[in-house]
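Obj.: predict assembly geometry.
Materials: sequence records (below).
Method: joint structure prediction, all chains together.
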Amino acid sequence: MDTHLGNPLAFVFGAGMVAPNSVPAVWPDDHSGRTETAEGRIDDRTLIAGVELGPRELKKMDRMAVLALSAARRAWLNARCEEVDRSTCGIMSGNAVAGWTFTEPQLRKLYSSGVDEVSPYLASAWFPAAAQGQISIHMKLRGYAKTIATDRCAGTQAVGLAAEAISAGRGQHFLAGAAEAPLTPFIEGAFAGRTALAEGAAYLMLGTALPDRTPIAGIFAHATTVIPERPEERLAYCLQFLEQFKQDLGETPMQVDILIDSAVPQDRALMTAMQARPGVRRAWWVGDYVGDALAASGPIAVAALCGRYAATPDSTPAILISLGTDFATAIAVAAVLEKEASHVSH
Amino acid sequence: MSLTDAENFQEATVRMLRSLGCEAPTIAPVHHLSVDLGIDSTELIELATIARDELGLRIKPDLRHMETVSDLAAELARLVESDRRA
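Observations (raw structure tokens):
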């Protein structure tokens, strides 16, 4: 399944996202997940309609898991996955701050009324892997599944690791992405002074092939590393990703877009520096479009990028670099053109 | 416990199971809480909170060993009686 861009780790067959209105490009159909929102928050009615669950199940879940399930279902619909074997389909999910929309009210009850008033569902609702678990339970996906919790990098790393798992033969299909619900007093207080937080989720349906389906994009490379705080060293890492991934994307000279996913204001200088490099068409600051959705920012950016590939003639490859406090993760994404797509499902 | 009390506890038990979110078309005394009504061990803990509030019990009961709706109604009746005597 080579393309003229090189040999992808995995193909993207569909994507689903639930994100604030500021996201610039989405899937051009009814499953887009673009919702009426205000200040980084997603409309409750639209969100709940997307998960297909009643109050008995919803009361057991943090908003982070509801967002995850909604985006995962949209990705499944977009990819038209009827033939995918649910017993082997994997999940790779990222999350940075876990389930505080559920936890905070319970902590208040614990303080004011005692342990007997704390919800028994707290234990299974708060932890980062709850999103993965709820997707698995309600979508009946029983393949290899992991949750990544590497701060902001977690979502982008989840996509990269799922692509690598497919490439290594550990699974044929994966739902990969991240969910984040940080709009609570405690989390907003902890992140005070930074860019305003936003909630959101995005998942990609990754695989080697689907019968009679044309992939939209390929994930061509993934790298995660520990990254220092000093700006010049961060730039050196980003340039290293750029050079490595341009090689991974193939010998043909082409332009690439750079997507910088960071909440560190000084990293904006990376955009200027990278845009000046040969072969870079444009560098984008993901937060300007997505807001600060923490680990979900990277997958939302990739889902939006796939939307661009599906809806417009612009097939410029992109390198997404998520820069956290301690880690950096980069993935290379490129559109699969009609010419190459004809090779895919055979 | 008189027959009337038993009927009342049966009705109260069904009401509490509805509060829990149980959407089965009918809830009968012979129904198994897990197999027929899909109630899991964590939901039994929530049910204990509902029962405490509904019946005015002084402590939250342990209902984790309950198997059927009938068991549950009988246990709630026993707990109310025990609470009265204490």
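Conclusions so far: The first strand of chain A starts at residue 10 and ends at 18.
To do: check interface contacts against the pulldown list.
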